[in-house]
Protein: Hydroxyethylthiazole kinase
Organism: Vibrio breoganii
Amino acid sequence: MDKQQIAQSLQTLRDSKPLVVNVTNYVVMNNTANALLAIGASPIMAHSAQEMAEMMSFAGCLVINIGTLDSVWIPRMLFAVEQANINGKTVILDPVGCGASTLRTEVSRQIAEQADKLIIRGNASEIIALAGEQAQSKGVDALDSSDSAVNAAKFCVEQYGANVVISGASDYVVTAEATYKLDNGHEMMPYVTGMGCSHTAITGAFAAVGEVTGLAATAILGVAGEIAAEKSAGPGSLQMNLLDTLYLLDVETVLARLKLQQV
Amino acid sequence: MDKQQIAQSLQTLRDSKPLVVNVTNYVVMNNTANALLAIGASPIMAHSAQEMAEMMSFAGCLVINIGTLDSVWIPRMLFAVEQANINGKTVILDPVGCGASTLRTEVSRQIAEQADKLIIRGNASEIIALAGEQAQSKGVDALDSSDSAVNAAKFCVEQYGANVVISGASDYVVTAEATYKLDNGHEMMPYVTGMGCSHTAITGAFAAVGEVTGLAATAILGVAGEIAAEKSAGPGSLQMNLLDTLYLLDVETVLARLKLQQV
Amino acid sequence: MDKQQIAQSLQTLRDSKPLVVNVTNYVVMNNTANALLAIGASPIMAHSAQEMAEMMSFAGCLVINIGTLDSVWIPRMLFAVEQANINGKTVILDPVGCGASTLRTEVSRQIAEQADKLIIRGNASEIIALAGEQAQSKGVDALDSSDSAVNAAKFCVEQYGANVVISGASDYVVTAEATYKLDNGHEMMPYVTGMGCSHTAITGAFAAVGEVTGLAATAILGVAGEIAAEKSAGPGSLQMNLLDTLYLLDVETVLARLKLQQV
């Protein structure tokens, strides 16, 4: 994909308003739904096995986020992935805190193995832990730099047949064909909880309209975050301005701002 | 009710600060509580059967919202409705995503049948699905116009002995005695998640002080949303400005802005 | 602690970025995480018994908030407290709605009894109910003034070996050695849901760096809330401005604004 195609995806998404089904964590359900609405998608937060087969039959994709994992939710997630597979839908996995506990690492790997069509979006520590390397995580924050996770991402691409997005000071998108580095965004973004979760959900919105590399979501969230941060005194106003910016963003602004290189 | 009575309800609500008990969905718990606080009510989010009998004995009303339904929460909701009935409290039902899955449709109808004193607040697709007509829903968004749901609402009024509020470009309030059309609000409002859920909760706050038609909540949220949207660049600032506006709103502004007609 | 030490704690916190593990309620998970990030801590929201032993081994402290209590979460909370005890970590208890239901009162006392190292942060009605006196609560709001809860707090200090923080128009910090009164904050703060929950979580962040009286958190949230409210038209903008203010706050501003006296 070139810059033009990436930026154009924004219009494609808005024209088709895809339904993004989210099995996600309690912390970010509200702002994830708002980010999806602002970019032009149609979010639903659902998790019951009693309706997931139906949901997956008409969903655009399935977002799985393990941020507040427990023994009640794990079978719900696995059932949802099974239904996504049956219906040929892409699963977007956010392995929140992978490496911070054995439970999170194991469940992340189990979901990654089970999903047929898969995109993984995590921070460096999570991707490194998912690949089985020694990561330095503390809670859900990354202590590793995104640059140090590219090899781990390549391992995940091969191991799970996935495309992998690493968020950080620089973002990376790693596919079987190429590795891209994106240098938008802003250092204040990690001070808003669930910024990565929004990144994952928006990756799902683009996957639902056929953009399954993760490039468009990464580009657009990076550009929007950068614009929003320029107007923001702190993380409270950043969260608000990000939603406004996602809503107002146009193809031309994405093209003009996007810093993308193949590496 | 005439305009003057509707607007005056705002003062009545603030004077008595009613306790609104919410069994609601994970996505909107935070902004629903904030909307209730801003308008002058006292919200509590509670769901445990171990305390619901006590809660219903001193609650002003019971709000039931099925947005993130599952087999653990369904019996909690039904138990809460039973306790509301025993204590003579009004139930306000938000059938989120009714029509989007069989589960949601069936549970919505079950709750509507069980509640003795009932107000239903939904979008057009939800009300149409609740009435058993063929609705066009996608996830939790309405694809039907609110105008097309008035007959379905009339069916629900008769079937469930309820007052029914339909949210949309125009809002409708349908009771056994009359049908009202309200034309406030703003097209940006559906881009904030849980705007309908706040509408439902505020309907509960007014029901708790004796205004059980749904008119006052619909009028006041419409006027507040309209004022807030005029100051907002996008849905992020709209969410913030809506809370500020609800907090600052006075009876005179509601009267001056309200577009209400009986139809 | 004198004013200088209290204000200086802010720098200590930022330098060490402690990991605060929160077993908290659905309503406030998002804004609590954001408040912790803004002040400079590293939050994780986790509750599964399958990972809590691991979490407590590297956590800075444990925050327990009973705001949306049920029979599924109670054993999770008790297990987490047990693990905190084993690892010598301080537990910060927020007895949300203590007194509003028998369940909440009993579980609050059970947790308070079980925790070895304990700080309690509540409003006046909650602290009075926890101490077994007759409280006037309605839902989760306090109807009692904070001044009237000081004796109840002293009882809790003795009964549970805890330090106790009472939030209200004046805040009080009660320890075995002394009682402090703090007069910052703003009357608009109770109109933002979860403001007390953020207070509790920030108390945890300071406890994780050795400030276990509750004074630093109370001082800093009071000063930040006061500054934020001065810029805010209503509770929507107050929530946003509070996060910005916590992020930007410096030691000098805390020192200049803090109204603290021993009583």
